[in-house]
Inverse folding.
């Protein structure tokens, strides 16, 4: 078995491309063409997950792009995630093998623990993706948490790197305290942390900790509220894209509010993975790479922080899945 030092992944091993396509809430019917078009216009970072339910279709888009010569496999950074029901160590490898099969890939560039939430196993043949509720047909459908230390799951994740199924492993939705505890016993350090990041939730201390710990950071929901309004988890009035600070900067530099907010995320040193189902938005979002914000503009946007977390299991799990399950204070 490889030694810990030989397998430790740090920022020197190449962080994720600065902008990627997030596949959360992308309809299965839209995913093949959307992924292919994203690669055509220049995206090389695709962020998927078992729970999104569209990995087969995303894989079709990747395959089409490669077959048409739009890219090579080695040009792409493909991320997937371990779902909550697969935290017991014996289920970790079968879970990544299922994602690899669905995506049509031999290995992943990054595999993340989706949430620090362990739920009772649901066999593939029973339901896939298994989602949050253990038995949707129950009289009172609920999540079914189980006691699995994150360190146990992590050891199985480390084995995926050793076996060559994934190049890097990482975490999502984890606090500094949880990461610090994991680092104390890890053979392979997390390469990436993926968390909610936008101007209303800047998470400055978490970002500094990751930077000083050589952990790259990817921000999901980088545009904030829009992804959550249709789910009833945010209101249209909470959109940072309509905030006068953002619209004013956008007007001053001749860019769209979305490009300003995405560039703010990238200039902070994080990767961003905006979701869109509209091909025309792909180019708009990608063009954020060409934007430059002054230090004063960056500070003005950062000052909008209000600690507003849209994706909080402590809020949505009880309402949607019958189980109070906070993971943040």
């Amino acid at each position: 078995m490889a030694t810990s030092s030989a397998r430790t992944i740090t920022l020197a091993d190449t962080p994720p491309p600065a902008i990627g396509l997030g596949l959360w809430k992308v309809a299965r019917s839209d995913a093949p063409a959307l992924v292919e078009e994203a690669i055509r216009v220049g995206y090389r970072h695709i962020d998927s997950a078992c729970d999104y339910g569209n990995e087969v279709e995303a894989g079709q888009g990747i395959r089409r792009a490669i077959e048409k010569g739009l890219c090579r496999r080695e040009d792409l950074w493909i991320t997937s995630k371990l779902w909550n029901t697969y935290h017991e160590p014996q289920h970790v490898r079968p879970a990544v093998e299922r994602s690899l099969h669905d995506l049509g890939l031999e290995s992943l560039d990054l595999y993340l623990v989706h949430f620090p939430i362990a739920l009772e196993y649901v066999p593939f043949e029973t339901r896939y993706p298994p989602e949050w509720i253990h038995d949707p047909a129950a009289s009172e459908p609920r999540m079914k948490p189980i006691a699995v230390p994150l360190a146990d799951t992590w050891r199985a994740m480390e084995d995926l790197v050793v076996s060559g199924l994934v190049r890097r492993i990482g975490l999502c939705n984890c606090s500094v305290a949880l990461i610090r505890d994991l680092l104390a016993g890890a053979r392979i350090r997390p390469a990436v942390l993926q968390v909610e990041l936008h101007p209303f939730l800047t998470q400055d201390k978490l970002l500094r900790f990751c930077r000083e710990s050589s952990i790259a950071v990817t921000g999901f929901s980088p545009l904030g509220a829009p992804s959550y309004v249709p789910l009833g988890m945010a209101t249209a009035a909470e959109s940072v894209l309509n905030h006068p600070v953002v619209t004013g900067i956008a007007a001053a530099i001749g860019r769209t509010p979305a490009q300003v907010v995405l560039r703010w995320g990238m200039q902070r040193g994080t990767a961003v993975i905006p979701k869109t189902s509209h091909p025309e938005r792909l180019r708009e979002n990608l063009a954020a790479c060409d934007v430059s914000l002054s230090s004063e503009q960056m500070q003005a946007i950062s000052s909008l922080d209000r600690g507003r977390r849209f994706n909080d299991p402590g809020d949505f799990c009880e309402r949607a899945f019958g189980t109070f399950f906070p993971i943040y204070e």
User: Anything to note?
Assistant: The longest strand covers residues 77-82.
